[in-house]
């Protein structure tokens, strides 16, 4: 392959999925996902491409599975399972808050997977035509990112409001992603038409979910500010003991010793202050301001974790009605860590 042809092949094979990921990050006006997180997630996707290659090779060599059956039916299941594993962990550990950051990280996993896969084919395919790289770059690569993003979006939607969702909650999203992958691999349309379908539909779907998620984020920021400010006002005033929150904490005296109740009040105040700060950071990011990581925030988060350990799991569960316990309220502390 001539140098110019090689350059075009590399560009067409690798650039589309990278540019689409950059576009998703740009559309995220609140900058919910840091560059470091995106790179780490994409790296995981690349590692999963290597793992998938090993599994597929094992199935071909040891089990004598037919290559067509592997490519069209088995590989989509294996690859979507591997790519989706990180998304499951992020949702279950409450490291994502909204559809926007979930979708970005889902696409980043698929993008990393696709980049490694296309790099492999760049090194092994002999003299492929530009049409092959168009299909692989604009079709297969975007399909990998899009399928995992759809898995992430569906899974996030089905687990909204669940503290630690069971694994069965992720099955519908996984089946949908594997189905999309299998349909693409089975060439029900011509490769070029399948690629065109991906290029046309994927931006529309991502735009729709981004718009829907950002409206929800704006509503959450507004209501959250009001609630956090009211809690702090009550704690700092003489009205706290007569407020619903104060009366609720007082009712816990029969269950927990006084020092635990003191720690619970300290935890409530610190959590509320950090919540306000996190919402302020999101608003600053949305306005285009650069936000640097504050060492004091890291110390406060350390103190918060210490208080949580001191209070204990049972007593912490009693704070859930006050803290609301939604995944957004817990996820926002990640915003402070990543700055």
Q: Can you give keywords for this protein?
A:
elongated, mainly alpha
Describe the structure.
The chain is mainly alpha-helical. It has 2 domains: 3-214, no CATH class; 237-338, no CATH class. Helix content is 80%, strand content 0%. The protein is built from 12 helices and no strands. Helix 3 (67-92) packs across helix 5 (130-158). The longest helix is centred in the middle third of the chain and has 46 residues, at 191-236.
Describe the global form: elongated
Number of helix segments? 12
Q: Would you tell me the overall average pLDDT?
A: 84
Share of helical residues: over 70%
- How far apart the termini lie comes to 46 Å
**Structural domains: how many:** 2
Q: What is the C-alpha radius of gyration, as a whole number of Å?
A: 24 Å
Order of helices and strands: HHHHHHHHHHHH
Structural class: mainly alpha
Give me a quick take on this structure.
With 339 residues, this protein is an all-alpha fold. 80% of the residues lie in helices and 0% in strands. It has 2 domains: 3-214, no CATH class; 237-338, no CATH class.
């Amino acid at each position: 392959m001539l140098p110019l042809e090689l350059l075009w092949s590399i560009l067409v094979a690798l650039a589309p999925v990278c540019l689409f990921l950059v576009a998703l990050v740009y559309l995220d006006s609140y900058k919910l996902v840091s560059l470091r997180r995106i790179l780490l997630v994409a790296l995981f996707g690349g590692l999963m491409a290597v793992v998938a290659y090993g599994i597929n090779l094992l199935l071909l060599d040891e089990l004598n599975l037919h290559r067509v059956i592997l490519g069209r039916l088995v590989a989509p299941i294996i690859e979507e399972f591997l790519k989706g594993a990180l998304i499951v962990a992020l949702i279950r550990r409450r490291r994502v808050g909204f559809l926007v950051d979930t979708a970005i990280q889902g696409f980043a996993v698929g993008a990393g997977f696709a980049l490694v896969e296309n790099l492999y084919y760049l090194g092994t395919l002999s003299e492929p035509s530009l049409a092959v790289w168009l299909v692989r770059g604009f079709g297969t690569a975007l399909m990998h990112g899009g399928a995992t993003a759809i898995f992430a979006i569906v899974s996030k939607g089905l687990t909204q409001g669940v503290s630690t969702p069971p694994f069965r909650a992720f099955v519908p999203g996984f089946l949908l992603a594997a189905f999309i992958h299998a349909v693409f691999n089975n060439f029900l349309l011509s490769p070029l038409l399948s690629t065109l379908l991906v290029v046309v539909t994927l931006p529309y779907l991502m735009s729709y979910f981004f718009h829907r998620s950002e409206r929800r984020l704006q509503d959450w920021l507004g209501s959250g500010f009001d609630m956090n400010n009211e809690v702090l006002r009550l704690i700092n005033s003489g009205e706290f003991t007569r407020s619903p929150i104060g009366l609720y904490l007082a009712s816990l005296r029969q269950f927990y010793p006084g020092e635990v109740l003191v720690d619970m009040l300290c935890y409530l105040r610190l959590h509320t202050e950090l919540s306000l700060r996190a919402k302020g950071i999101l608003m600053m990011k949305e306005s285009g301001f650069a936000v640097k990581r504050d060492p004091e925030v890291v110390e406060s988060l350390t103190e918060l974790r210490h208080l949580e350990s001191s209070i204990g799991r049972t007593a912490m569960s009693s704070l859930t009605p006050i803290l609301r316990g939604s995944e957004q309220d817990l996820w926002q502390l990640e915003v402070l860590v990543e700055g």
